[in-house]
Design a protein that fits this description.
With about 290 residues, this protein is an alpha/beta fold. Helix content is about 30%, strand content about 20%. The chain is built from 13 helices and twelve strands. Helix 3 packs parallel to helix 5. The longest helix is centred in the middle third of the chain and has 13 residues. The protein is globular. The chain binds iron/sulfur cluster.
Length: about 290
Amino acid sequence: MMRYHQRMRIRYTQAKSILTPQTRGFLTAGERPYTHSLSWAAGCGYGKLYCGAFCYAQMLPNWHFARRRDEGWGEALIIKENAPELLQAQLARARNRRDMRIFMSPVTDPYQPIERKLRLTRRCLEVFARYDDLDLLLIQTRGSAMLDDLDLIARIPYAWLGMTIETDRHDLPYGPSQPNVERRLAAVRQAARRGVRTQIAVSPCLPYSPGFAERLLATGAQRIVIDTFAVGDGSRGKRTGNSPFAALADYDWRDDRIALRLYQQLGARHNAVAWSGPGFAGILGR
Ligand code: SF4
């Protein structure tokens, strides 16, 4: 059945499984690897924003097998509408819940624009809130709509909120970014004040203004991870070179020095600043 949300083409499917075991790749690149990922959609409603130009998810098999030939990145969302029920079933029968470290979501954003209508992420969080014995749940988003679920996230003892903030500049010539940076910084501040453990992902690090480090520190985030195109795209820059971003970029995106500068500035003032894959897969669990 086809349904539409704004200009996105929305398709609903019944999935067989919702927790995907992780055995290699970015999410396992650190001392504390993720054991599973959770993505209730293929595609992304933010795919036409500037992050969609360099987003690696559009190059992964998950998207290519799910999309139809006339569905471009940012034009379609294929939704596993039974995600909460599957999650409940998988957690209930898991024998190793204490070891489970879940990244939500590596191939889409769990706070899609349509989440306010569907509440699939909220219903998954309600499932997690029934279990207090997992090791880690990282909810990685760029959507300030996660504020709707802050009380729920705060009740999950192993949950972390990850907010992507690649830059604080509004004048970059790559197209629109929503939600805007101010709202994302404010969302992290609010989450940290509420007692939710928060991590900012400057991923990938784009050119930023001189006060960026200060603005990140002022949020109260407990961890900050810096990543770059060359180190973090999983192919030493090849994926980024093949992405629409390579044609848009007005600077040398292969040069890691701007990211390293930020890493050093932050590292001098904050005791939990981490780098790329080992940083993402380095969060201490409960
Ligand atoms: S929000 Fe994340 S998944 Fe969606 S297009 Fe941007 S980078 Fe990709």
